[in-house]
Amino acid sequence: MTNEFLNRFSREELLKLIEIYSKNWLAMDGVWFQSVEKEYGMDSAIRHDENAWKRFTVIEAKKIKEFLKLPERAGIEGLEQALRLRLYANINGDQITTEGNTLIYRTMDCRVQNARKRKGMEFHPCKSVGLIEYSGFAKVIDDRFECEAISCYPEITDNSCNCAWRFTLNSLPI
């Protein structure tokens, strides 16, 4: 079902609306997280965040995969396309490079960490959540992917970005 009211808007206005929707989604994610963090502490908030991402990342990946009409095992090209359509892609600066069976995804400008810094809050220790999120997303696109954190708070090894992830497309087992 389409919201017919959207037909009134130009392409540029609809693109702006996508950005607004993406920011609203991220704000909701942050609001519930900070509520749990404030009442029960960071460890509990992270545990709930991990549980939420286990489910959400699969939903997001399936919908994007269907939209792009990707094959069951979409490979490196499919993952690159799908990453570019995530909600984050509309509001975070990112960089994707590929070489052979490897894709590197780097978040250059993270709205979550920027907001926490601006508010004087501790950075979000997102590595454990990111492993769940990015691994789960990639495996929906192609079940042969393995994902590892190259650099992610609290284990920063690359100061030129907020986080970096390596996706390796493995061959099928014999």
Give a summary of the structure in a few sentences.
With 174 residues, this protein is α+β, with helices and mostly antiparallel strands. It is built from five helices and four strands, in the order αααββααββ.
Walk me through this protein's architecture:
With 174 residues, this protein is an alpha+beta fold. It has one domain (10-169): Muramoyl-pentapeptide Carboxypeptidase, domain 2, CATH 3.30.1380. It has helices at residues 11-40, 42-68, 75-83, 111-118, 127-141, and strands at residues 93-99, 102-109, 145-152, 163-169. The protein has a 4-stranded antiparallel beta sheet with strand order 1-2-4-3, with helices on one face. The chain is globular, with a radius of gyration of 17 Å.
Summarize the helix and strand pattern as letters: HHHEEHHEE
CATH level 1 name: Alpha Beta
- C-alpha termini separation: 45 Å
Give the helix level as a range of percent.
Answer: 40-55%
**In percent, how much strand structure appears in the residues?**
15-25%
- CATH fold name, please? Muramoyl-pentapeptide Carboxypeptidase, domain 2
Low-confidence stretches: none
In the sheet with the most strands, the strands line up as: 1-2-4-3
**Radius of gyration over C-alpha positions, nearest whole angstrom:** 17 Å
CATH architecture: 2-Layer Sandwich
Coarse morphology: globular
Structural class, from secondary structure content?
Answer: alpha+beta
Total strands: the figure is 4
Task: Count helical runs.
Answer: 5
If you average the pLDDT, what whole number results? 95
How many individual domains? 1
> How would a textbook summarize the main sheet?
4 strands, antiparallel
